[in-house]
Amino acid sequence: MTFAEVVQQSWGPMMEGLQITIQLTFLSIIFGLALGLILALGKVYGWKPLRWLCTAFIEIIRGTPLLVQIFIIYFGLPPYGIRLSPLQAAVIAFSINSAAYQAEYLRGAIQSIPSGQMQAALSMGMSAWQGVLSIILPQALRRVIPPWTNEFIYLLKYTSLAYIIGTPELMGQARFVASRNYEYFQVYVLAALIYLGIVLVFSEVFSWIERRVRIPGFDYHS
Amino acid sequence: MSKEKNVVLRMEDVHKSFGENHVLRGVSLDISQGETKILIGPSGTGKSTLLTCINMLTPPDSGKIWLLDQEITGSKKVNRLRQQIGFVFQDFSLFNHLTALGNVSIGLTKVKGLDRRKAREKALQELKQVGLEDKAASYPAQLSGGQKQRVAIARALAMDPQLILFDEPTSALDPELIGEVLAVMKNLANRGMTMLVVSHEMGFARSVADEVVFMEGGVIVEQGPPTQLFSRPQVQRTGEFLSRLSGLFGEEEEKQ
Questions:
Q1: Which domain holds residue A137?
Q2: What is the pLDDT of residues A204-218, one digit of tens each?
């Protein structure tokens, strides 16, 4: 088979897989961001037990393999009455995993904002919560865009692990096609090219967003 | 001559330690309506700590502070009281992600609950007071140090405070930018704003201060009108400190 024929044959199923890959990535990065933000705020501003709890959660998630986490959620929970579809299990596992990493990026960004910003907010009568929402986060979220883009790209590629529990995402579909036409090399190269293509598109999109929200005259690196 | 004076801020025996370091060792001070007091003293004496004790950014260990008839220390409504106490920082601490206008109006919308249009109007008015209405759309990083500090003063003014605390407002500025900030402050003093200023600008103190307060080692050593304190200090340490200051900033005999 020529590469063109392989492309023609696998394009349909692979595009279906890509849709699921993107769905999986976006759901996980957004849930992960929400949970990561809570963890980061808990770790920076929380009282001691909460700080400890957030740190423990982050360390456990970062210290264990993603695949183990996926297996625990998909294969480990049904005996306890929690039965999830492969897609649900994958979204939950990726969200939790990504949250731990995003929390650390966010914490770093929050702590890089000079303490005077919060002092100024408090001294004009804002509550600490208002200070976080109106002053600290708008600046911290801008700073977190570059590492966050990294996390997005990692996650997009890590979603390929979901094929193991039978999620029909891009990698799963590639395996399915290859198992029928035996063109393993060409099918997986095609899958790799598709991953590469969307990674390039999204990193361009995020650097455009980064430029759009840049504070005029303000250099983060100084 | 005794004039009925309305005391805006009263401090009684304020103490503050950081670990072993006993920074404030019993400071008592009153500031009346419309008064400008200048706080001077060697570095590490607790001048800045005293200011942050007043708005409870650094809660004192003991002692009492009142704003008008409300006790600040031990109050549950610290946020409400802070609205009434402006604070101008040495390093400006403008909100980096907001324009000059945004910096001045954010307290009005978020804290005072004004609607956007009214907040904008008032913020523009305050920027005009400090001569920066044409910089309303500029971000802090696009302003000079002097302009930043004037925006910070406008930000404090916008909240209609009972008094404004200034923590070395000109010491982070290039010499040629100090004048514009002092001019704004002088104008405020003349318009009757109550101010407590940590500053070693002797010329400024001489021309606007009702009283100069010399602090050292966590206590007030001496206080009095600038003319008296500068020319006839009662305590030897005050004299020594002032003569070193004027050696640095003041008029020295000319080189022969």
A1: 3-213
A2: 999 999 999 999 887
